[in-house]
Amino acid sequence: MDSLPPSLLELMGTQSGTNMSRGFIIAEIGHGFTDEGDLEDGLKEFLHSKSVVEQTTGLILIYPTCVFFAIETPDYVFFDVLHWIEELEDQGKVFIDATILASEPVLQHEFFTLTTFTLNFATTKVSEYQTSDPVEVTAGEATLTMSKLGHYMESKRGEGKMRDILKHVSEDIPSLLVSQGMISYLLNQDTIDRVSEFLNRNTSTLSIKPDNEVIWPVPTRLFPDD
């Protein structure tokens, strides 16, 4: 999808008050994933190309087998961010089965200072996670937990570096972290949109015939077929 020049996008954001969108995206980590620094640098480089680095907040949690994005960015580049994730998935190295759990307009930031954090342990083994809840309930629980983590970190603003705060959470308040098992469970559900499906549905142009091309009532055949 083509995008507007960064200078125009920046002007639009300044003049419009910058409507924001928040997205929650999960994905399996591909065999070509190197480290969190490359992922964070790549995302920030992309956001810089759109002139929205300072306007974008969020958190990327990297587990041993998967990743969870929560990102808040101006809505006029939100779909560009999804396309960036889709491109990484198409390469087949960084992400596999990128899935969007939820997207919504942002009235107030829940996160600050886009940060990537690696969890060096699996909070729940993939094979151990079980639930009888409907998929949509589990997806809602995952996004709610991530939002609670954002609120907690916001309450700790100015008390230290983001990474130090997250390390404290991972060690002492694991209930604020979505388990790896839950993420893997959600990635295996075919009723949740993949990022590519979400983009196709929300960015494809509808084909609608003008009135002058529609014949009504439907003509009837006056003569039988030979």
Q: Your description of this structure?
A:
The protein is an alpha+beta fold and 226 residues long. It is 40% helix and 18% strand. It has a 5-stranded mixed sheet, with helices on both faces. A hairpin with a 3-residue loop joins strand 2 and strand 3. Helix 3 packs across helix 7. The N and C termini lie far apart (50 Å). Residues 1-16 have low confidence and may be disordered.
The main β sheet shows up as: 5 strands, mixed
Class by helix and strand content? Answer: alpha+beta
Radius of gyration: 21 Å
What ranges have pLDDT less than 50 throughout 5 or more consecutive residues? 1-16
Report the span from N to C terminus: 50 Å
Strand order across the biggest sheet?
4-1-3-2-5
Return the average pLDDT rounded to an integer: 80
Strand content: 15-25%
Shape, per Cα inertia axes: globular
Helix % is 25-40%
Number of helices: 7
Sketch the topology as an H/E string, one letter per element. HEHEEHEEHHHH
Could you tell me the number of beta strands? 5
Keywords:
5-stranded mixed sheet; alpha+beta; 18% strand; 7 helices
Sum this structure up briefly.
The chain is of the alpha+beta class. It contains 7 helices and 5 strands, in the order αβαββαββαααα. Strands 4-1-3-2-5 form a 5-stranded mixed β-sheet, with helices on both faces.
Give me the secondary-structure topology.
Layout: H1 6-16, E1 20-29, H2 36-49, E2 57-62, E3 66-74, H3 75-90, E4 95-106, E5 115-118, H4 135-155, H5 162-172, H6 180-187, H7 195-203
